[in-house]
Amino acid sequence: MEEIEERREENEAPIEKVYVAVGKEVRESKANLIWALQNFDRNKKLVIAHVHKPATTINIMGAQFPVSQLAEQEVTAYRLVEKGKIDNILKEYADICLSQKVEAEKIVIEKDDTVQGIIDLIRENGVTELVMGAAADRRYSRRLKTLRSRKAILVEQKAELWCKIFFVCRGNLICTREATEGVISPKAASSSSSSRSPRSNSLVSDLHRLSAQPSMQSSYFPPRSNSINCTYAEDMLLTMASSNSSQWTNGSSHKETMDSYPTEKPGRSNVLEEGPSTVPNDAEDGFQTESSSPHNGSADEVSIEDIDLYDRLRGAITEAEDLKNEAYEATRRRQKAERDLLEASKKAKAADSLHLQELRRRKDVEERLAREKLEMEQDKQQLDNILAQINRAHEQRIALELRISESEAMVNDFEKKLTEAYHLLELLRQEQLMNAERKGQDCSSSADFKSSSREFVYQELIHLTDGFDESKKIGEGSHGSIFKGLLDNTIVAIKMLNHDCYQKHEFSQKVENITKARHPNLISLVGACLEAHALIYEYAPHGSLEDYLHKKNHSLTWQVRARVASELCNVLTYLHSTQPNPKAHGNLKPSNILFDSNYSVKLSDLHLGMAFSRSYTSRRSTVAYVEPELLATGELIPACDMYSFGVLLLVLLSGRPAFRIKKVVQEALDKETLHEVLDGSAGDWPLEETKELARLALRCCDIKRGSRPVIEEVRKVVEPLMNAAKTSKLRSWSIGSESDFGGSVPSYFMCPIVKEIMKDPQIAADGFTYEAEAIKGWLQSGHDTSPMTNLKLPSDELTPNHALRSAIQEWQQRRR
Question: Is 495 within any annotated ligand binding site?
């Protein structure tokens, strides 16, 4: 029977279990579970443990409600849904185990704190081996040797000491917390005690009964020590019971015999006072010896065997008591060692925590230093780049200064040569004039002048100019000063020429030629004063082309420039076709192109074959418009005007000074970058017509007179550009428009509804243009009629007026 019972107990012995803590995300905990399946003995039972944290709020129709505010049935239904989700998750883990041919148990603990849930799992189930995560998967690296997860750190610190914990991350063992030696889980202890035989258990129960009596216990010993100390007595009693089982009898049969022996031995009182004792007295031990004469009370009749058995029992109990005391002292030492170990562990953990903090702080400092170093390197690189740019700019500036100095030297040399040529020409002219005087040309010229224009006297000029007051001066050029005067309620311009520029007969010839030339685009000569070498012209109130190109705050549109070129073609055609002998202007430049009250072109300072003056080239800007061959020979022909007109066309196109303009435009045409040279403030030039005009202008600037086109050929190229200017939408080609000279706001720029300049003009179904927000507000407010005609609109569709918006933006830009 005993062998059968022992086999049954062996079969019923508890199976060792390995617990694996898993989370809700199967993808993250799968690797840890597979690691446990691969690294633990298949004889151990695998338990999948999950700590479920119940939700404190429930989502109802998109809003979160606390559980405390909901009905019980609603919370119950939601908990059932949660339970279903947890069951599905654990089923996935179980399927993973089945794929490895391992059948696993599942356990779920509900706890608000996951860490406390794992600790309770270890304590309540006596877990001896646990596998859990050490860090999040994204933090894993081969150098990971410490715990990164806050949960893992807390479990390591607070879990029961009998549990061995394996910390795993992404299927790699990071570290292990070993179980403390000597600390046994409650379930292990209970399983070992249950493995004893029934006979020994009865003896042990008697021993526990004796030790549990109030008279035998002492408050000096903690309850935990009793269970440990009793094991020694239990073993001793079991030994004695097995060897002398035949001598144990009922307590009532031998009471008198045991009463004859003393209950205490000498020298044992101190032991009973200092600690708990299990030595029974005659009334409490429950054991008695047999006597041959139980009723006579004589000590001689007591059996020797009974006395010997009693002494052996008493010695065993005494020895058990000594062993118990020793065990108690050992327990005290062990508890003290455990406390010391716990303190040392706390200190070690604190040191580890400080070490981790120091490592993090050091890492932060290193990262900050690395960032600062990188920023310093970037700043240094930027500084090096800036220094390199400064050096290049300095080199370029030196090169430009050198080129400028070379150019200035060339210009000075050229001017010296020009001066010498002028001097030679002057000598030749004087010689020609002397010959002309001999033939009486001066008298005939004077007579012709008197017959064709009004002759003024010097006193009239003084009266007209208030004694040549400086406030009346409106200009000053190389030939003299220009004053404004009032003649017969009409404003006139009085040009006082320098006496050293013209001889008397030269001046008379100039007046005669100007009087004979009559054209709408030529400035009209009112009269002259031969005495003072003065010319009285009609007054052009809107200044010269030079003012609008280089001096005023606004620029001319390309449409206006096209009209100026067209009108210059008209006047040059007239001059060059004069019969019998073609005539030339000889002084074509922006300062001589004036604008009258209607903003029409008025060409002034007409030479018409007169002797060339040295004062003509007193300024570099003037030299750029003069034909080089004219400077050398002084021969003025229509080809000279074509050269000046070509330079003027290039200035109108680019808006740049005339000096070296030919080279700039030629390079732009060769590189197909003419759009970069064109004056952007003039608007969007029509590129094809502009390229054709630029090529023709460069032909006009050819050094060889025979290679230059005539004015009629130029006119054919200017006309397409003029037609494009006339047909351009919403862009006035009149130089007197408000968009060109900064007048009041054009009416078509204003919204008819809000009376403000439109930002997003839209064309409605009535054909009128409105501000987008204004017309949309009009339609959305219920109106179906036109704000202008009050007629019903055929539709509410709006069309963006891109042309008007571009015109408004360009007008505003020029105004700024």
Answer: yes
